[in-house]
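Researcher: I need the complex structure. Ligand is zinc ion. Inputs:
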Amino acid sequence: MAQSFSPNIPRSKSPFYTFSLIIIIFCIILFYTLHYRNNSLISNKTSQNANLFRNTFISSADNSTISDYLRTLTLHPHLAGTPPADKTIAYVLNHFRNSGFETHVKEYNVLLSYPIHTSLSLHFSNGAVKEIPITEIGIDQDSIVTPYHAYSPSGSAYGRAVFVNHGEENDYAVLESQGMKLAGCVALVRRGGLSRNAVVEKAAEKGLAAVLMYTETEGFNNGVERGTVLKGLGDPLTPGWAGIDGGEKLKLDDEEVVKRFPTIPSIPISADAAGTILRSLEGARLPYHWKETLKSKVGRVGPGPIMINFTYQGEKKMSTISNVFAVIRGYEEPDRFVLLGNHRDAWTYGAVDPNSGTAALLDIARRYSLLVRKGWSPRRTIVLCSWDAEEFGMVGSTEWVEDNLINLGSKAVAYINVDCAVQGPGFIASATPQLDDLLIEVTKKVKDPDSSDMTLYEKWVANNKGIKIQRLTGADSDFAPFLQHAGIPSIDMYYGEDFPVYHTAFDSYAWITKYADPYFQRHVAVTGVWGLLGLHFADELILPFNYLSYAAQLQEYVKVLGTALDNIASISLHPLVTSIEELVEAAKKAEDEKKELSSEKAGDYHFALKRRILNDRLMFAERGFLDPQGLKGKEWFKHLIYGPPSCDYGCKEAVFPGISEAASRMTRTKETETVQHEIWRVARAIQRAVYVLRGDLT
Ligand SMILES: [Zn+2]
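Model: Output:
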């Protein structure tokens, strides 16, 4: 019946119809032929030329270019959320664009914090008053933010000054054992192992009214170390989700938000200013073991008799921050992401922290673009990430990780972070253990910047009397959300243990050229390792992950734990031991498969699929260490092997953060069940990694 309504179309096929059909079939055949031919060609080409491109990457190093980038980046201070930071955003974006890459900017609307007014004076018993400078003397104060602690509450205090060393529990124990009454006093703290937030919270717990914090440095006693006192990572108004414009935000007085801020005010002061206060103290003698590193001439800890009059007024306000990205699409596995990241925002000029790293990232963009012009296209997608507002608490990277959690969880191969690229001499690297082999391999390809005839690897080994790869246990740079929240294998690296102008107005281009790296050769070395790692992760047919290293590291941790829990009969480490044994077996099997699949048949479709399956197992195994419930008391941190340690009783024994935390509580409560429970949780996490690595269902 329907036919009767159809227009008058002849039943026989028209010549045009037949012609179109032939063309379509021809196109389909041509597409498949070219696609598979091309794929196999590119596969061969990629594997054969990978070395060539790596060599080109290394030989295109240029110290003067990195130096130029750094000079431009540090022409003016660029604190996150302030107008001058926009210029830095534009500079990085333009550079990525001019390198020929696909670029984009992802903005978030987040709560940042800035100072309005600060004053500090000493009141002596004879009635004299002495104003203490709160800024760095001899620095143009108009362009630089007054030293402050981001997210400190506003407030005033008038109380006796007391020196509490690093402000740790055992420091207070020393003072309390002498019968000292600290309530209402103003604490002077010398920065040590605790985070700023932990120092202020501990002081509040002890009844102190306010905290003045200083850092002892060699030769830069006029510098003041700015910093954040925010607890945890990311925008306080959007805990666990991204702070997108128009999205859900908690109110400032919400319990979840309030608990992220300290309850008493604090500011940083210079070592010079701290010296003035310390010399005015009377009262109890300085405990002998506090003297060791204390360079200020001081003999008493107070409290008083001098009184401190202190006021800090700040504002917390909504600000727009911008993460900037360059994307180099992968040719064969565009849905697998290799991420190289560095933050761009700085407290002041940020020459070391973080723009030595930004200059390195820009140079990687330049050199990758050179490779592209020479015919390179990565197998997997590479993303160069420039984060904002790291200094406030890894805000830019955390919001982005929360925004992209599922895509990152299912597609991110590795995250390689560089914050301060160069602080001084000596290479330092941290990694999740399955990446150790690659890290070592790559450092053998890079020249040591401080000797003419050694590789970076040889010098690194010589300096440390062996290989020393640290672990990502702290949450002190942008790798934290990637590893500790999303379970992505990560690396972090830099040159130089620390540097005296950290977070001060003196962290300038001039300081770098005078002290840290006059010829920018150390910058070249970090750029070399960083860029090569990116090339390996992006181009190797089989991901260079070795879980035998992970298992070996976990076995070490169990030994340390065993010693720490030595004579507690009711606690068994057996679940851990068993799950690690299983990890060893699964890792061995994966290594065998890697050998089998890395053979010549690069373009074979069947082999390509098998490799993809193995790569997925290698990539996802790290996710097994995540636990949806997270670490007790800091549930946002999901990784049970690497996460911020509990610092209540010192931050040193940081193996298995959940177990360490429970064990430190046990020393008071004598309660062993929680420790055993945490041991089981870690054992189950390792078991999950084993299942992923094996790849089959139970
Ligand atoms: Zn930094």
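Model: Summary of the prediction. The chain is about 40% helix and 15% strand.
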